[in-house]
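User: Can you recover a sequence for this backbone? Please restate the input before giving your answer.

Assistant: Of course. Working from this structure:
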């Protein structure tokens, strides 16, 4: 099953995708995050898919406008340096524990939205698989964590490297408002056929390619670990890390420029296509430089 958050005028609504159509859910779920917080959400979605719910409005998916999948996620927790190839390109050893940082819901944006960045000259890409929590987790083991996954989606942890490397803490370079696209849909675990292929493109050029089978800490292990220090609730979002190929790891380093098209794709889930707009603090657009001395 594939779920999405759609814009409907000034409002948003959760929807279930059926073939080439989008069937609006008949209950007042404003987004997928709110939907999965309802213990009965799967029954409601199943009734739409099976045709038992006769008051579901249907619109063509091709004309539906996608909004941020989880605009009000209570917690957005990200894992850095989780693919073995990315760890190696950063010159680090495999970690014993996950490297974690948090974002706010304000950082999230839609699958096709323009990303406006003000005040950074080193804007980088990080294609990622993200996990949506579907039931409360606290001090859970891996099997409990696996059962608590509502679904999987696509994200890009767009990073402002100049801000990130001002201090040893990454937070300020990861938490710019409306710079983390998520979507286009969430797929439920029954749709998963195996490991995911994660790919990132800049203006159509493949810059990242990885397989989640090489994650040091897989989704269930991550959720279990996180739940031992903070409770996870339905609608929370966990980003699992990015494969090799980020701009900062290139020689020389390469960063996004004003007007670039950033595409993030995971086979079986879908793709994000986000135009990047980069501005000086005074509002003037500029192109980012292609070299940097930044390190992670």
């Amino acid at each position: 099953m594939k779920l999405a958050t759609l814009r409907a005028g000034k409002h948003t609504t959760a929807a279930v995708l059926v073939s080439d159509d989008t069937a609006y859910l008949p209950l007042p779920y404003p987004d997928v995050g709110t939907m999965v917080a309802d213990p009965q959400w799967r029954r409601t979605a199943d009734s739409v898919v099976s045709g038992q719910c006769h008051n579901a409005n249907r619109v063509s998916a091709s004309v539906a406008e996608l909004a941020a999948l989880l605009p009000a996620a209570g917690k957005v927790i990200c894992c850095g340096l989780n693919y073995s190839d990315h760890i190696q390109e950063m010159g680090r050893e495999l970690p014993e524990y996950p490297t974690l940082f948090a974002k706010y819901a304000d950082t999230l944006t839609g699958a096709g939205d323009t990303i406006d960045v003000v005040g950074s000259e080193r804007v980088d890409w990080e294609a990622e698989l993200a996990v949506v929590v579907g039931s409360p987790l606290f001090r859970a083991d891996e099997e409990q964590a696996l059962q608590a996954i509502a679904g999987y989606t696509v994200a890009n942890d767009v990073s402002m490297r100049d801000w990130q490397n001002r201090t040893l803490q990454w937070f300020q370079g990861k938490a710019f408002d409306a710079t983390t696209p998520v979507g286009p849909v969430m797929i439920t675990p029954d749709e998963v056929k195996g490991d995911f292929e994660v790919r990132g493109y800049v203006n159509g050029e493949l810059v990242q390619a990885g397989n989640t089978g090489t994650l040091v800490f897989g989704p269930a292990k991550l959720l279990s670990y996180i739940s031992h220090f903070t409770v996870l609730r339905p609608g929370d979002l966990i980003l699992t890390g990015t494969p090799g190929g980020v701009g900062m790891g290139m020689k020389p380093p390469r960063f996004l420029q004003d007007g670039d098209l950033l595409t993030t794709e995971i086979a079986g889930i879908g793709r994000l296509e986000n135009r990047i707009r980069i501005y000086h603090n005074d509002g003037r657009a500029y192109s980012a430089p292609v070299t940097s001395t930044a390190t992670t």
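That completes the design. Confidence is low (pLDDT under 50) at residues 287-296.
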